[in-house]
Structures are given as structure tokens and as C-alpha cells.
Amino acid sequence: MTDLIKLTVSEALKGLKSRQFSAVELTKAYIKQMEEGRKYNAYVVETTEQALEQAKLSDEHYTNGTNRALEGIPLGVKDLFCTKGIQTTACSHILDNFVPQYESTVTQNLLNNGSVFLGKLNMDEFAMGSSTETSYYKPAVNPYSKDKLLVPGGSSGGSAAAVCANMCAAATGTDTGGSIRQPASFCGITGIKPTYGRCSRWGIIAYASSLDQAGPMTKDVRDAAIMLKCMAGYDPKDSTSANIEVPDFEKVLGQDIKGLKIGIPKEYRSDGLNKEVASYWDKAAEMFKLRGAEIVEISLPHTKYALPTYYIIAPAETSSNLARYDGIRYGLRINGEKADDLYINTRTKGFGAEVKRRIMIGTYVLSAGYYDAYYIKAQKVRRLIKQDFEKAFEKCDLILTPTSPFSAFEIGDKSMNENPINMYLNDVFTVSVNLAGLPALSLPIGLDSKGLPLGMQLIGRAFDEETIFKAGYALEEDVAFKRK
Amino acid sequence: MAIDNEMVKQVAFLARLKVEDDKIEETKDEFNKILNWIEQLKEVDTSDIMPLVSVNDSSIPMREDTITDGNVKEAVLKNAPMQEFGYFAVPKVVE
Amino acid sequence: MTYTIKTEKNEWEIVCGLEIHCQIISKSKIFSGASTEFGDDANVNVSFIDAGMPGMLPVLNKECVKQAVKTGLGLNAQINKHSVFSRKNYFYPDQPNGYQITQYEYPIVGKGAVKIDLSDGTSKEIGITRIHIEQDAAKSIHDLNPKKSYIDFNRAGVGLMEIVTEPDFRSPEEAGAFLRKLRSIVRYLGTCDGNMDEGSMRCDASISVRLKGEQKMRERAEVKNVNSVKFAMQAIENEAKRQVEIYEQGGTIEQQTRQFDQTTGQTKFLRLKEYADDYRYFPEPDLPPLYLTDEYIENIKKEMVELPDAKKDRFIKDYALTAYDADILTESRQTADFFEQAAKGHDGKKVANWILGDLFANLNANKLTLEQSPITPEMIGELVDLIAKNVISGKIAKDVFVYMWENPKMPSQIVEEKGLKQVTDTGAIEAVIDSVLAQNPDNVAAYKAGKVNLFGFFVGQVMKASKGAANPQMVNEILKKKLG
Ligand SMILES: [Mg+2]
Ligand SMILES: [Zn+2]
Q1: Is the predicted ipTM greater than 0.95, yes or no?
Q2: Which ligand is nearest to the CA of C161?
């Protein structure tokens, strides 16, 4: 039998349908790999018994011919998704022992499609970070690590590590400023942040509501298309969910990209840009050109302001979203004499340093006297950033950029940890996409001189994930990146 | 708009967080570093620009007025660190 | 009528505005599908949304919007076609999310005006600043444990309309008249049940004083949660007097929040307005803006019921009622409807007398509401008719009313059964008169000699002999003729 864990979702589905192997066999193979991969600290909760139960049911579905789109596919779930009856903590101390009594819409969609859940994946606390180092359960480890332990990126670092090390067939992630794409880039996998509103946010622990989006993290582009189709859809329980039909993304894979206009934003190519990143970027553009796509230079003049804008809006929303963690209804509780003592004790102990930093920044920028100077200003710049993209998309159909300015760094990296702004710069190429609510995919383009993966980002028009998938699939074919 | 130690304490209290006395100076410096960086935004001319609240400018969807939820007392209380008589318990609140 | 507080030195004027929280009548909560029912077991009518569970999102209830628009129209106010939900951030155990979803810069209803009638016969317009919709907080129970408070989230998330007035009140009486008027309007509209003692209508008063003739406003105190019209009037009076006293002693007033003490009728200090009152409002990122169309507003206008002011004018015109009677009859929609049903095809003024007189007296004496009345509007209408048609006398009608009250039947049936029909046969009445005159020859002689006040004696005797059934007017006429 082939190495089951190395199969992509689409390959595994074929094997299951043709009864080459059973869902239980597939799940067992992944469970074994999870055991071997514990050093990566990708899972914070393993639900292997439940997974085997689910796999057994999936086999019955195959027997009955009632198999669904993801029947028997073993998945990992980022710990930001509430999973009914399974501990969900957002990798924060403050949600100690929290067991949701409800299932997030996205994970419910995946369950309804017959998938099997292997467990909950490590992440930065409340999705705040770019390395999973802020996780209460210690950082996840990049499977590309050799002598020194490298970060898998973040915040969906556990998801990226698990997919990379074949500890699940695919995983869910969430992306607020780059949290799917940057770890995908660091771990040599594929990830897409869909258009804001494409996936329901119901049941996903909120970080920054106007920016958060769930998306798949997969071994290849086809899997991303299959997974997103299953995760997405209008949800009346999320008032920001888009009532727009979800296309069959897989259909466009392999379609000709001749004549497609691919924009290269000049502002992304600063003098300081990493040479290897720059040359891979050129190479990707060249590949598109060879397929008959047209490369056009575009301008996104407010690019430079995207990160500062993000670091006003996201903390502002988070300061409010995280106010509910007060020790009263769930999670950690450190008692105090008065209600305020209970709050202060619980929150001071329960939140990690980065989360507290963002809560405080957010509290400050919303407070009386500073609101206009910071929050309103940021919202105005956010509009300019969105308008930049609208103008750019008059000239092109898709935008090609690197995903991250560099490859994976060491766990405990001094410059990243000494100055939070250095860590924030991880998202310099990804964050404006969230501010504009657009879809963007990251796929591996190759390894750098250190042998570490680098990713390319394809940004599309709102609700035009199809063009992204079409072009991404073509690029993937040309790159022929060798997965782990 | 540099902030001082007093402001650090005020903001921490508003957020119901405690910054230990010996950490206030450090927190303030870090805060100011981030705020300085954020203040690049001042360079941008936004005089005629409307703030962008949400990327989808559709109108709010509305539900019918029917009872579709609730009656899950046990599940609501399931994760409570302290509950008594079916209530969530907190230190005495005096108004 | 000018109301001032006179001291030895000065004459002071009250400046007061009200904020009234009205619980919206709806089946389910404003942002969740849980029931708004009261009196159930603690934490039963609570969804995961109402309990502020991680990942939960609000979805707006249509009915709450409609109710607010109706109320706005009822207060002659501007309906805003664009409004925005905001978060008001503060920590309190009864606030599960650490913020309240409310409206701030863009409320659903803008400026309006309400006419109030005062005891001296004058009337005055009170300006409405705005109405916004928001969610109610949970209920804290303090008396079960000396060291703990207990939280019941049944009320959390019930829809509220916060009605804010201009600082137009210059006397406690004006505030009282406004609250009664407002209560009557929301009850007419069916948008709030208006029960202040049960907390479904709660009033905060913002009170300051100034020297008569002074233009500027002085510092004000906000008195929270006054739960009856009487208490609101008391709170305003006593708080104003307290402030005057302080000023007269050379003191100053600081902006502060105070509480009304029901036992003393005084207000007491709660807290100063301070930094902790920085609510960091910002637009709710989980809810897009609310847009209403002209068509939507027009349709609600068409459904509007006649309000007390219009009804009162019409009663005065159509039924020739006095302003005073019309006012009482229109205070509640039930009374007005009862009256109109009774008055249909009958003498409205007489019907009003019966309702305001005998009926209300009996209801009061038996502590019954109008809905519990054994006497129907049709009975009153017929009773008035029987008198008008000389079937019974006014005096007999009183007896019929008593029978009806005890044993509800149509008055005609009672008259029939009890043989109370008035005798209008001239011959029969003449016969009785003849016999009375024959039995009292002395009095007849005395009358004829000039003692004319004996006439009443004869009428009495005739009525007595006919057991009250003789038509009194005919008795008068025939007697006069016979006595010459
Ligand atoms: Mg208010
Ligand atoms: Zn309010």
C-alpha cells in the first residue's frame, strides 16, 4: 500500500471511493504519524478515539454509497474553532478547560461533509502572533527545522506544521492579518484566506471581527479548492456572512490562464527586500508569462500604512472582543474580593504578554480623546487601502506578491522577541488583503539557500477565488514543489 | 502623543489588567514605541475620506421574531468556574 | 405654570432631562432567538449568545426595529434611514460580553416632540432628542448570600428602546405628566408594557438647577433607576432642593451619579463621573449598518393606531365630551375602546358618565381592571338607551346596574325579568294619583291653601305606590293638573 499519509485530500478520496483502503486505515495512519510528530507540538488536543469512531461511520457511508464530499478525510482543526464537547482554548490560559457546547459553523460544515477530526491544533494565543510562540501550550515547531528549532509561522502555526508533517490530510486555519498565508509559506504548504464573508465566523473565537476569516491549509491547490467549497457558505447566524453562492472551485483547475492580467505592485519591491524572495517573485511572474498571462505593473500607494492601520483596528476590536474573558461564565477564574478584583486577577494571570499588549493598545486608541486621532484615522486609511486595490483591479485580474518577506526564523529569535514591531513586520505583504477584505492564496514557490520554503501570494477580487485557484493551480504545476 | 506612567495605569485599569509597579516604565516605553510607529498614519491626507467600518456595505440582515434558542440551562452553566443554585456566582456587587 | 424653589435670597429653576429605558415587546431577544419571557427559572431563557460565549455572534430581530420605528412615529420623531450599532465597553457582572450592543452616533430615531397637559390647563411640548435600540443586561440577585451576588441571564439581551429627552422639564409635575404620557403612548402602540414597578420602563433623570433667568446650565447629577412616576417626581424635587441648598451655602456641584432611595425619597451619592466612564464606543463590527427604506417606514405609518392626543380631540368633537372626561377615557387604549364600543349608536356623553361613574367606582371597589369587568360595553349602551326611551327611569337604571354587576345580563332582560318597566300609561298613572290624593285629603287641602312644597311629597307617594315604575315626568304633569 502507498504511504497513506502522503496522499492529498483528492488522492485519498479516490482511494477511499475505490476501496483501496478504508477510512479507518487512513485515520490510523495519521494517528501513527501524529505520535511520531509530537516533537512538533502541532496538536494541543488529540481526539483519536472520536476520530476512529467517525472513520468507522465513514466506511459505512462508502459501503452504503452515501459518502459525502470529504467522507473519511482526517483533518486537524485550529484551536480557535469551537468544537462541541472538545476542549477549545484558543491556546490561552484564560480559557482553561473550556469545552464548548456548540460547534462552529465551519467545522460543522466539514463534519456534515463526512470529514474526521484528529484534534485541535496549536496556534498563537487568540491568533495574535506570527510564530505560535505566544501559545500557552508552547510553540509549535516547523518540520523544516534541522539543528535549531524554527517557528512554523503563525498564528495558524500548528495547522501549517501538521499539514507539512503529514499529521493530517488538511487543516483549518484563520487569517486576520496573514495567519493562514505566512505559516503556509513558512511550512511549504498551501493556504487560502477567502473573501471576508465567504466563511461564517460563528463559533470561531473572535480576535478582530472585521478582519477574521477562516480558510483551509492544505497540501496543494486542489485540496484548498475542495476544502474551501466545503467550509464556505452563507450562514444566517453571522450577520457579516455573504449571501453569495459558493462556486465549485475545483472546476476551474487546469483552465487556461492565457490573457490573464497579473499585477505586480511596485510598492512591495522595496530596497530592503530579501534577494531570494525577490528572485522567486520574478521567477513566478516569468512562469505566468510563459503561460500567456500578461504581467502589468500596478501601484498600491498606501501599502506602507497597512501595518500601522492594522495595529490600530485589530487591537481596538480585540480589546472589546476579549472583554468577555472575566472568570465568570467559563475558563480561568482567580477570585478576588470585589468583582473588579476578580476581573483583574483573572485577566492579568490568564492572558499572555502579547495579548495584553494588544488589549491595552486597543483600549487606548478607543478611549476618549484619542479615538479620532487613532481609530477614525485608521478607518479612513483602511478605505484608501481598499480603494488602492479597487483601482489596481481595473488594470489586472490578479495580484502576485511574495507571502512573507523572509523564511522561517528560530524559536526565541532575539530581534523578533525584543521588539514587537519586528514580529509585526512578518505580515507586511499579507495584512492589506485583510483590511480590504479580499481573497488571497499562498503556495510554495521553492526553498531558499537555507533549505527553507518560501511562498508566493495571489490576491484576487472580492469573491473571485476562482481566478486565484485557476492561476494558483497553473503556478503550482510549473513550480513542482516537492512536499515533505 | 506620548503617554506617561499614569496613562499606562489608567489604560490597564480600563482593560482590567494589572501592570506591576516595576513594569510600568518598561510598558510605557514599549507602548510609546508602538504608538510612534503607528503615528506614521499622520502623513496620510484623509481629509475627504469617509471612515471604513466594514468591507461589505450591505444592510444588516434581520431575523424573524420567533423563539429558536435558549432552554439550554445546563449547557450554559456547564463551563462556569463557580455556580450556585443555577446562577453564576460573583463577588458581592454593591450599587 | 412656573415652578421655582424660593429661598430667602434667591429664586431657583430646575433644569431636567429624562432617559427612559423601555423594554421592547417582542417574543425573542434583540440579538438572539431566546425567549423574552420573565419569571422562568434562572438562566433558562438564555442562548449561548446571551451568555457571551466565545465565538457567538448577534443577529438582529426584525420586530425590535419595527417597534422602535413605531415608537418614534408615536413621538412625532424623525426616523433615521441609516443607523449604526455600536459597542459600549464596560465591565460589569451583568454584562456578559464586557460591552453592550447599542447605538451611539447614529440612532434609529432622531428628534421628536411630545405634548403634555398640566393641571392648570396649560400644555407644553417636550423635545425628544433621540431613541436608540440596545440590549438589556442580566439581573443580579444580591440577597441569597452575604458575600456573593448571583447572575441570571434571562433578561440579558432583551431589546430596549432608550428614549432621551431634551432638558425641557422645569418642574416635577412636568416630568410626571411626560412619563404618564409616554407610558400611555407606548401602551397604545403595543411597543412596551410600560410597567415601571416591574422594570419594563426605567427612568434616569439628569437634574441641575440654576438661578431664574440664568442662561447657562450648571453641573448636573444623574439619578439612576427611579421606578415609578411618583418616585421620579420626588427624586427631581428633592435632588433640586439638595443642589439649591449646596449652592446657597457657597458649595459646588460635581457631575455625579446618584441613586434614589425609596424609603426616604432622597437621592444618595453613588459615584463621580470619572475615567472609568470612558465607554470606548466604536461601531459594532459584527453587525453591518441598518438601512430602512421610505416604503418600510410608510408601511409602518399605515399600521399606526390612533394615539391618545388624536383620540381625545376626536372624543371631544364626536361625543361632545368635556376635555377632562376625554382625557381619562383615552389614557389607556382599553378604556377608550370600551367607551367607543359602548357609545356606538347611543348617547356618548351619558355613556361616558356611566363608565366614569358607576362602572369605575365598582371596578375600583372590587379591585378589578376593565378587562375583568362583568359589565360589557353593550350593556352600558343598552342601559343608556333604556333610559332615553323612557323604558326605565334613571333611578331604576341604578338598580339595573347593580343587578348587572352581580349577575351579568343585558339590561333589557333584567328589566323584563324583574318587571321594572316604567309605567307610561296615562290611565294607570292617573289611577294611582287619584288613590294617593284620596288617601291624603289633609295634605291636598294644605297644598291648595298655598303649601306648594308639598308637591314633592305627592310625587314620592305616587312613585312609592307604583313601586318606582311610573314615569316621573308624567307623574309630575298629571299631578300638577289634578292639584290645579
Ligand atoms: Mg444613556
Ligand atoms: Zn441605555
Answers
A1: yes
A2: 2
